[in-house]
Structure formats: C-alpha cells, structure tokens
Amino acid sequence: MISAFEQYFSSLQNKKVAVLGLGVSNRPLVRLLLEFGCSVVGCDKTPRENLDAEVLRLEQMGCKLHVGEDYLEGVEADVVFRTPGMHPGNPAIVALRSRGAQITSEMEVFFEVCPCHLIAVTGSDGKTTTTTLISEMLKAAGKTVWLGGNIGTPLLPLVRKMQKEDYAVVELSSFQLMDMTRSPERALITNLAPNHLDIHKDMEEYVEAKKNIFRYQDSQGLLVLNGDNEITASFRGNGITRFFSRQGEAYVCLKDGVIFREGQPVLPVADILIPGVHNVENYMAAIAMVEGLVEDDVVRQVAKTFGGVEHRIELVRVKDRVKFYNDSIASSPSRTIAGLRSFPEKVILIAGGYDKHIPYDVLGPEICAHVKKLFLGGATGEKIRQAVVNCPEYDPSALEIVDCGGFEPAVRAAAQAAKPGDVVLMSPASAAFDQFKNFMVRGDYYKKLVKEL
Prior knowledge:
Layout: H1 4-11, E1 16-20, H2 27-35, E2 39-44, H3 53-60, E3 64-67, E4 79-81, H4 91-98, E5 102-104, H5 106-113, E6 117-122, H6 127-140, E7 145-149, E8 167-171, H7 174-177, E9 186-189, H8 203-215, E10 222-226, E11 240-245, E12 252-255, E13 258-261, E14 264-268, H9 277-289, H10 296-305, E15 314-319, E16 322-326, H11 333-340, E17 347-351, H12 363-370, E18 371-377, H13 381-389, E19 400-405, H14 407-417, E20 423-426, H15 439-451
C-alpha cells in the first residue's frame, strides 16, 4: 500500500514548485522535491555572490535559483512552499494564489503525511524547553521520538523512517500555524503575550494563528492550557481540555512545593535541576501532556538529570566568583521577566536588540525589583530605559543604567562592573536581528566574549 508521503510527493511530479526561502530548514525539502522529479525554483533574498556552497549545490542538482532583492518578482508555480517567517498576506504570495498556485509549507505537508503519533507545542514563552522536556520524557520511557518543527531537524524528509508507534514532538511558531488546517492528537499552548507584532497585523491575528494548534482536533484530541494566563484560560478544545496552574487549582497544579496531577503527587519542585519558576510551569505542562504515556518515576528521573536547553538561562562561565548566564532566547519582555525571577539575588542585566514593536512597560517594574545594574544596547535600548525610569519604583541610586550603544560594548561593560558574587545575565527582551542572524548566533557570540574575558 502506497504511503501518504509517497502519494503526496508523487502527485507533484512534473509540476512547477517554488520554495520561498533557502534557509537550513527548506534545503532538505528542495532535495526531496528534486528526488521526486519536480521542477523546482528556489527563491531567496540573499544576493548570488553571498550564497553558500550548499545552495549552489542545489542548483547543480537541478534547482533553478531566483535570488537577490527582487527574488519574489516574476515567480510562476503550481505549488508554493512558504518559509515560516513570510506572512501569508505577502503581496507576492497573494498574487501567486490569485493565479491558481497552491500555497503550503514544509510543516503543513508534514502534518498531512506524518505516519506516527503527533504532539505539538506552541506559546509565546517556554515552548522550546517544554517541547524538549516532552521529548526527553518519552525517550526515557523507551519511545522512539522525532523532535522538530521550530526546533531541531526538519521532519518532512525523515517521514520515510518513521513507524506508526513512534512520536513526533513538534514545536510550532505562530508563523508556521497561520495557514494550518490540521491539528495534532495532543496540543499545548504554554502561554500567550504580545510577540512578533512586527510581522503580524495585530495581537488578534497572532492569537488566532496560535489557536490553529487545536482548532482542527476531533473529540479524541487533548488540549493542555495555562490556567494562569489570561488569554489561554479562556480557550476550550474540541475534545479534552486540561489546565495547569502554578497559582490555583487545576488538573496539574502546585501545592507545598510539589507538582500534583489530578490530586496525586508527581514531582517535588526541589528535584528539578534547571532554575526558575517558569521551568516549574514547563514541567507542569509537560506532565499534563505525557499522561498515560510516561510513568511518574520516569518524569522524576528526567527532572533530576535534564540540564536545560542551550541559550536558555545557560551558565556559561564562573570567573572570579562572577556567574555569567546566557539567556539569548529571551526575545520578548515576558521571557526576560521569567529569567530575572529565576535568581534570588539582584543581577547585572544586559538587554536590548531588534525592535519587534511590542510594549516594554511591563519590564520596568521587574527590572527595578531584580536588577542592580542595567547595560543597554540596540534599537530597543531606549524603550527599555524609558520603561524603567517611568516606573514609580525606580530609584537611580539603587539601579545604575548605562547606555552602551551596541551588544559587545554592553557585554564588556557589564563584565567590568561585576564583582565577586555577582550574576551577569544576558537576557535582551528583544530579537537579535539588529546585529545577528538569530538568537543562537547572538548567544554563541556572547559565550565567546565571556570565555575570552
């Protein structure tokens, strides 16, 4: 019997297929399309002289390249694979759709052809750690797990290796979810707060995109939601809806330092290796998601051994009794707030970066409460400064603010100001795109600077 995967890609043979964006996640897709005899045009904004060797190899394999500033002009195709960061309302995509092109994405097709159990996680904060936790718990329970989506390896090219009893654990961004018309068996929204408003039309569009993770579930579907988050607390799924709450009663809740599920103790918070109350919430969410699939003793085993995900409150170095932490994933105020609350002492904070046009007011009181010296750089530096100085709790004698202009000067100034016993936290509350390709490159550069001190 022909698989859904073979059936789908065979249906594309002899069709014109455009792949918009030739980043790391779409390159395996191009190779797959070429394997099935498709006529492929790869479109990317990068000028030809700056293309890397792997993209040029795709051209040698038969992929026509349409690159440079006008890479979306004059594209003709029967099927278009949209890169996640490109809004479906982009004029070029609207024009292609009006001419009869089918618009899809690598993740949409994966949902259509995935042969195994499908678990998906989205949210504004905590989704990568929670997705990883679910994956680690399932692996520790002896399951075969495929981790991907917005994290890890592109999954579509791996479908032929997947077995029916396996688990695909997928992290999804709002951009990946925007056009989705399928939902997973088990879905989780960690929380929702203003984010990516530089690309989404407004907060309503962002929230509606996130809802697609459960919108198409049937009556057997499981939806797990954060009961402490004002937005997600109002959602209800088509099947079973369960809440986790650190602050009140819920299916998974916190009592006297222990995480309970349906009234039964599962995990003492003291057993969780990674710091921060937000990671307690991440464990609560994961525990709700793996119920019936993973024994509680396996959950406890993972909690005692899991050291966290890179760039998420990652201890980089201890030098002269100063601890340097990398929290480059914190591309929004809510992420930085969670990072600040992870430390019992006041920290030295490095913040600022690319402006996603989101409000920073909520960050002011948290910085006043948790920071003793603030070093700013990037486009959002002034926004963060204003959020702090406009805060009634702001005391200039207790909180020094230094405008450093850029990322590297801020890191060096923070390191120079630190004394034995201090914590230096790089948690920008901003995206990295003003100076770096992404938050991972920013985090790696921070670690390089710290290790050179």
